[in-house]
Amino acid sequence: MTTARPLCLAEALRRPGYLLSPWPWRALAYLLTTVPVAGVLAVGLLVVGAPLLAAVNAARQDRPVELPLVLFLAVGALTVLASAPVVSIAVTAVERQRIGLVDGRPLPAYRWRGLAARYTGADAWREVAHTFWLGGVVPLGYAVSTLLVLLDLTLVASPWLVGDADEVIVVWTTVDTTGEAVPYAVLGVLLLPVLWYGLGVLAAAQGAVARWLLGRPADGAALREVSRSRARLVDAYETERRRIERDMHDGAQPRLTSLTLHLGLARLDVPEDSPAAAPLAVAHDQAKNLMVELRQIVQGIRPQSLTDLGLAGAVRELAGEATVPVTVHADLGQPLPELVESTAYFVVSEALGNVVRHAGATRAGVRLVQADGELVVEVSDDGHGGADPTRGTGLTGLADRVAAVDGRLLLASPPGGPTLVRVELPCRR
């Protein structure tokens, strides 16, 4: 089963029907569930941050900073740094559950590697950075957003508020009659969709930062380029092509030549007005054309579905044949070169085959995005991960095929999953 529905809030925001879809409500739920987490973290940071600001202000005014304040700041800073790797475990665990509201792509599963790893591993300190982001930066964005929402609600409610007071302050002016407040109320109503959309942008930005900090493989093996050798691919291809040509020359071609000669002699012996003359002529012509067709097959094999359906349609056909549910998102603009289409098709075919055979996944996704003269192909799954190009030839063969068109293949597959195969193919004509 395939569909082109967006996988994350950032994609949904670019769709014309965003405001009428469930995504705004999912964004609001994501923002609201952030408030208690970010609030607790913000209070904790303020305990140290407020005295720090006081010390900085005193230093700027050339006033001496009292020793108790310096000691408090030192102890507080050390306490925050010492506890942050542990506190971030709970914070990121909650985030991994919540991010599904705005991004359907799974994050790498958390694996406990011991207390020492929490202070030495790069992945742990990325989680710490995410925790500080939630407690220090996100509340500022929420405060501004809340102020804008309250101002807009004041505009909308101003005709009713005027009746309860002598005058009402509306943004930059005051109104004291209902007639004066009505235009501001109309403006507030018109701004409601803008605010509704803006909350989605805020949630998408927060989710993007969370994915950037938490979406890297937990074992430190970030997206890495799979080892590839263009020379190996070219040599193997040339060797195979020469073998096929030799087999054709030594085996198929003599037999076809003999068949063509016999058909030609038979045409000479059969009168032109004979009923067998026309079929014999057709057979003779087909035999002569067969060698040409075989040479074309050797030069390059292109799946028929690519010709009939295009890359997006052919990939959806592959997804429909998979034994696990696969979602397909295609954003293709300009026509693609045939070699790029074929390469992308075989990448998806092999990657989905690996998902079915080895990943133990319950679902997978395929993304085809064309932008800035490049085709990006991503195949992801929620399986157990652990894909390693050194343990087989499948991924290395794909990297070879991609390298032949000046592209590159990257892989992220930490133990526990998920797995992401990303291929970048230049497609400038």
TrEMBL record:
Name of the protein described by the UniProt record: histidine kinase
Signal peptide: none
Ranges in coiled-coil conformation: none
PANTHER family with a match to the protein in the record: NITRATE/NITRITE SENSOR PROTEIN NARX-RELATED (PTHR24421), NITRATE_NITRITE SENSOR PROTEIN NARQ (PTHR24421:SF10)
InterPro entries: HATPase_C_sf, HATPase_dom, Put_sensor_dom, Sensor_HK_TwoCompSys, Sig_transdc_His_kin_sub3_dim/P
Keywords: ATP-binding, Kinase, Membrane, Nucleotide-binding, Phosphoprotein, Transferase, Transmembrane, Transmembrane helix, Two-component regulatory system
Catalyses which reaction(s): ATP + protein L-histidine = ADP + protein N-phospho-L-histidine
Residues annotated as domain Histidine kinase/HSP90-like ATPase: 339-429
Pfam families: HATPase_c, HisKA_3, Sensor
Source organism, top-level taxon: Bacteria
EC numbers, comma separated: 2.7.13.3
TM region(s), chain numbering: 28-49, 69-91, 182-205
GO terms of molecular function: kinase activity
